[in-house]
Design a protein that fits this description.
The complex is a heterodimer of chains A (about 280) and B (about 260). With about 280 residues, chain A is mainly alpha-helical. Chain A is built from 10 helices and no strands. The radius of gyration of chain B is 18 Å and the shape is globular. Classes of the chains: A mainly alpha (about 280), B alpha/beta (about 260).
């Protein structure tokens, strides 16, 4: 029985090869774009001719490598690696807790009407607030230690992940659950393996947005009230006109942000076959 | 061409599906809409019954009641002598869209039912392979739904339902969204399948030609609130093919249904 005569079985492999070629090409173009940005930076640095205003690429690279293992400021300072680890730990703790709470709250709002009606206005008021507005308050409550930083990220991540979870769960078509039930799955199995599963890509997209916000919050918090972290380092470097170190700190944030977003993108690809291209 | 049977449309063969005075009213913002009213219908085991009617006449609601997604407000709904109390694998449902699970491959989609019921045995896996062969998707067993064409997705949805060995197949305008060529292919596929397996099929459509080509009988519903207007016997010989749509007998049968619809 051949309906719609079978498509060439070799087609998928051809498609995979094409896709691989495309992704190679894309990586090459991306690398070229970054390289040309560095070249423009270099030209600008020579044009300005003042290392405090605009250090050259190689000066910045030298400072970056130097302070990776040497503390700054020399007394009571930390190395760039230490600061990066401090910021990363804060992000991970706040992001982990915020995501977990957002998932629970979003799922509860999607499933229980009263919870949705109660939480909706609160989330609605909280969401447009920039989390950094809460920094002084959190310092008053939790001091300048880790707790205030983790709390800040938590409150930044929570509404974003909550809304993403709620939206993703609401968007799961009823027919998908109906299909599951009429194939013999129990209501619980359907909840777990269809409704929640179908919402996963939307939740991960929300997590990516929240991750961007989390870096904004943590750097701001470290500049205002902290004794360590990349934000603290950048502020110190700025106070002493150590421009190459400012750039180094920014580069570290860029790399960390790229790595975390990359990890979330990998997660998305694993969860959503349509994202693999 | 036998005469149009006015109500009650009851056959003497053993009924696989039995509807008695089924009614359904939806309440939305204080407005009541009666979707179905006093629908009575018997469907024999192994029969291919088509439900046609104007849009909004409650055909889909009736199917949803049979599937167990929506409870009926009044009347009696029996499938194989048992009242319908919820969805179940003995009543396979094919929707307007294929509703495959996008995160599962074709094979995993087909095996979803047995896996969810903890009935996944090596025999079932072999059967899935055979079914994928039957629906022409053997080469696409490991492809994801978004990599399949529209017709292929529908055939995958078929295989996913057929592996449960349903006694009744409930189909809600399953080919409505397909282009004419794919649609004809799916109709031929369905006819060949039914010819071999003789599953009871309830097929909702608004396409009179489709109903005439596929059905043993065509139940015509009136506009809202939906009630059975008449049941038309289609006495065209089996097995039928798409070429039969050009015969005089076919055109006559089609016109008869259209007349009832327009009454």
């Amino acid at each position: 029985m051949s309906v719609e005569t079978a498509v060439d079985p070799a087609a998928p492999t051809v498609r995979t090869r094409e896709r691989r070629q495309r992704s190679w090409r894309r990586s090459l173009v991306g690398a070229a774009a970054l390289a040309s940005a560095l070249i423009i930076w270099e030209i600008a640095a020579y044009a300005v001719g003042d290392p405090v205003t605009m250090p050259t690429v190689q000066e910045t690279a030298r400072e970056l490598l130097h302070y990776l293992t040497k503390p700054y400021p020399q007394v009571q300072g930390k190395t760039l690696v230490d600061d990066a680890l401090i910021s990363t730990a804060r992000i991970l703790a706040g992001f982990g807790l915020g995501t977990a709470a957002g998932l629970l709250l979003g799922a509860a709002m999607a499933g229980i009407r009263v919870v949705r009606e109660l939480a909706d206005p609160i989330i609605g008021v909280m969401r447009p607030l920039p989390p950094i507005a809460f920094i002084p308050l959190l310092v008053v409550w939790f001091g300048i230690g880790e707790a205030s930083k983790v709390a800040l990220i938590f409150f930044g991540v929570l509404p974003v992940v909550t809304i993403a979870t709620l939206g993703a769960l609401d968007a799961v078509p009823d027919e998908l659950s109906h299909a599951s039930r009429s194939l013999g799955a129990s209501p619980f199995h359907t909840m777990l393996h269809v409704r929640l599963r179908a919402a996963v890509p939307g939740v991960i997209t929300g997590m990516r947005i929240a991750m961007g916000g989390a870096w904004t919050s943590i750097i701001a918090a470290e500049m205002i009230a902290a004794t360590g972290g990349v934000g603290f380092l950048i502020l110190q470097a700025g106070n002493y006109l150590q421009t190459p170190l400012i750039f180094s700190g920014i580069a570290v944030i860029a790399v960390l942000g790229f790595v975390f977003d990359g990890l979330l993108r990998l997660l998305l690809r694993a969860a959503d076959p349509t994202a693999r291209r | 061409m036998s005469a149009t049977v006015e109500d009650p449309p009851v056959t003497d063969r053993p009924a696989a599906v039995r509807l008695r005075d089924v009614g359904k009213t939806f309440r939305r913002r204080r407005r009541e809409t009666t979707a179905l009213e006093g629908v009575t219908l018997d469907i024999a085991a192994g029969e291919f019954l088509c439900l046609v009617g104007p849009s909004g006449c409650g055909k889909s609601t009736l199917l949803s009641i049979l599937a167990g997604f929506t409870p009926a407000d009044t009347g009696e709904v029996l499938v194989d002598g048992r009242p319908v109390e919820g969805p179940g694998p003995e009543r396979g449902v094919l929707f307007q869209t294929p509703t495959l699970f996008p995160w599962l491959t074709t094979r995993q989609n087909v095996l979803y039912g047995p896996r969810a019921r903890h009935a996944l045995t090596p025999e079932v896996r072999e059967e899935a392979t055979a079914l994928l062969e039957t629906v022409g998707l053997a080469d696409f067993a490991d492809a994801y739904p978004h990599e399949l064409s529209g017709g292929m997705r529908h055939r995958a949805a078929f295989a996913r339902v057929l592996i449960n060995h349903p006694q009744v197949l409930l189909m809600d305008e399953p080919f409505g969204a397909l282009d004419a060529i794919t649609r004809a292919g799916m109709q031929r596929f369905l006819l060949e399948l039914w010819q071999r397996q003789r599953t009871t099929i309830v097929f909702v459509t608004h396409d009179v030609e489709e109903a005439t080509l596929l059905g043993d009988r065509v139940s015509v519903l009136s506009g809202r609130p939906g009630r059975t207007k008449a049941v038309v016997d289609i006495d065209l010989p089996r097995p039928r093919t798409y070429e039969d749509t050009e015969t005089l007998a076919f055109v006559t049968a089609k016109r008869r249904i259209r007349e009832v619809l327009e009454q």
